[in-house]
Design goal:
By secondary structure, this protein is of the alpha/beta class. It is built from nine helices and six strands, in the order H-H-H-H-H-E-H-E-E-H-E-H-E-E-H.
Length: about 180
């Protein structure tokens, strides 16, 4: 099912295209686009799909890839390290979550929330002796460096951060804070 035809003009304008440019890119006449935007004609499914496909591709080209949004180097904690070290890393770097690694591979993550939950449930847990993996939550999602910003935004609506992985190695991290910084640039 295609989006509402009324979206064509909004998408065209947000992509910075004139009707003539969109016509040339989509192999649809400029007059047809003008009539669609005026609401005076219902195009065939094939022509409407061609316009939406073209506009979607233009929007994707304008999006920044994950590699331009990520922060690096990634601050992490090894699974065997003390929970105290994880807490110190969170504090020192002003972070709310860290990936937990073992031999360079992500096992999970620790966050302020997961650590506090562990301390509260543990009643007298020794932060010095407890290991980071004992307060671990599920692993952060991983993406490739060329993943478009829209996919990153979608993932961050359900996760505190995403890791950018290149050739099997963690190359960077993207948090909600990184997206906010990008907005004010």
């Amino acid at each position: 099912m295609l989006p509402d035809l009324k979206e064509i003009k909004a998408k065209r304008v947000s992509a910075g295209l004139t009707q003539s440019q969109l016509a040339q890119l989509s192999s649809v006449s400029q007059s047809l686009i003008a009539k669609i935007e005026a609401g005076s004609i219902q195009p065939s499914y094939a022509k409407a799909k061609r316009l939406f496909d073209c506009l979607t591709q233009m929007h994707a080209k304008q999006e920044k890839p994950a590699s331009q949004l990520m922060s690096k180097p990634v601050v992490f904690v090894e699974a065997e390290e003390s929970l105290k070290k994880a807490i110190k890393a969170l504090e020192k770097h002003g972070l709310s979550q860290l990936p937990v690694l073992s031999k360079g591979k992500q096992l999970g993550s620790v966050s302020e929330k997961s650590i506090l939950a562990k301390i509260n449930l543990g009643r007298g847990i020794d932060v010095e002796k407890a290991r980071a993996e004992e307060a671990m939550e599920e692993a952060l999602p991983t993406i490739q460096p060329n993943t478009p910003e829209s996919v990153v935004r979608q993932l961050l609506s359900f996760n505190p951060a995403v890791l950018v992985v290149k050739n099997g190695r963690i190359a960077g991290i993207i948090t909600k804070s990184d997206l906010l910084k990008e907005m004010i640039k």
